[in-house]
From TrEMBL:
The keyword Zinc does not apply. This is Deoxyribonuclease. Residues 60-285 form the Endonuclease/exonuclease/phosphatase domain. Residues 1-22 form the signal peptide. Keywords: Disulfide bond, Endonuclease, Hydrolase, Nuclease, Signal. Belongs to the DNase I family.
Length: 298
């Protein structure tokens, strides 16, 4: 009798909660989802040579497979095949039940040296619902930002956009200073306030002095929050520069949805115990990363 009540009361509470929240079957399987990890990685001159370096590919596979969404930058490959080949290898060798899909930008750049951006994403967790190649009518950007809107059923934040940018080093100030305009345009087109700016902004050292940094519109405007700080080091080797950044708006849902202490520079040389030579053959940049809270019903 007493035992029956012990079981019954929580059961009634549980049913009551579900009724208040709505459709029971819809909630099934969507409770307490694990977080997903988002990365942004400049794989210095990624193309044929790097893909054919037998030491590098297995390490790139390990690094990329950490992520559920990763913005890859500095793809330089006129054949436009090697990023697909790399993702094939990743799909075949790790986390095979949750393979990557990818979207790739046009080849961008004013000179013959062009680059592409790619977003690798695991369709098991997120889908691409829109893409936008920034229309750079004033020719501000060497490689105009490439943005993607994601939808997810397993995250608290169902919809969000990412603006990917690899600035031209010598024009870092001008390009970063124009990002608030890009942000507004992407927010309008994607119809969500949840936008993340990500990438190798070259936002430090000789490309952006502290004086210039404090003059940036997107720095002066306190609506924006820079998640990788100026003292961090996103470069491999002896340099110490915070080139790669994440930037969000304070009043978007990002700050509530990023797991505490999950914004990192991924030091792959330390983590994978690589020699300095091998680490340098992979890239001159570390990936930056963060984790987003999974959907949680209670
Ligand atoms: C694996 O990688 C390729 C990249 O070539 C991608 O297009 C594909 O959708 C991925 N998924 C599977 C299941 O192979
Ligand atoms: C990946 O697996 C598919 C299907 O088994 C195969 O067709 C493809 O050749 C493999 N690719 C690589 C790079 O191993
Ligand atoms: C910058 O971030 C690092 C890593 O999170 C932290 O250890 C350091 O204290 C921060 N520095 C400043 C000036 O906020
Ligand atoms: C955030 O603030 C801007 C103005 O600074 C406003 O236009 C926008 O609607 C706000 N977004 C949210 C989600 O409150």
């Amino acid at each position: 009798m007493g035992r029956g009540i012990h079981v019954l009361v929580p059961l009634l509470l549980w049913v009551g909660l579900l009724t208040v929240r709505g459709d029971v079957s819809e909630l099934d399987g969507l409770r307490d989802q694990p977080p997903i990890r988002i990365g942004a990685f400049n794989i210095q001159i990624f193309g044929k040579n790097k893909f054919n370096d037998p030491g590098v590919v297995p390490e790139l596979v390990k690094i990329l497979s950490r992520y559920d969404i990763v913005l890859v930058q500095e793809i330089r490959d006129s054949s436009e095949t090697y990023i697909h080949k790399l993702v094939d290898v990743v799909n075949n060798s790790t986390r095979q039940d949750e393979p990557f899909s990818l979207v790739v930008s046009q080849r961008l750049g004013r000179s013959t040296s062009k680059e592409q951006y790619a977003y690798l994403y695991r369709q098991k967790y997120v889908n691409v619902v829109a893409q936008y190649q920034y229309e750079d009518t004033q020719d501000i950007f060497e490689r105009p930002p490439y943005s993607v809107k994601f939808h997810s059923d397993v995250l608290e934040m169902h919809e969000f956009g990412i603006i990917g940018l690899h600035t031209k080093p010598d024009a870092a100030f001008t390009e970063i200073d124009a990002l608030n305009v890009v942000y507004d345009e992407v927010e309008k087109r994607f119809g969500t306030p949840n936008i993340l700016i990500a990438g190798d902004l070259n936002a430090d050292c000789s490309y952006l002095s502290r004086t210039k940094m404090s003059a940036l519109s997107i720095r002066q405007d306190s609506d924006y929050r820079w998640l990788i700080n100026d003292s961090q080091d996103t470069t491999v080797g002896s340099t110490d520069c915070a080139y790669d950044r994440f930037i969000v708006k304070r009043n978007s849902s990002w700050l509530d949805n990023i797991l505490p202490n999950s914004v990192h520079v991924f030091l792959y040389d330390d983590e994978l115990q690589l020699t300095e030579d091998l680490a340098g053959s992979i890239s001159d940049h570390y990936p930056i990363e963060l984790q987003l809270r999974g959907k949680c019903e209670f």
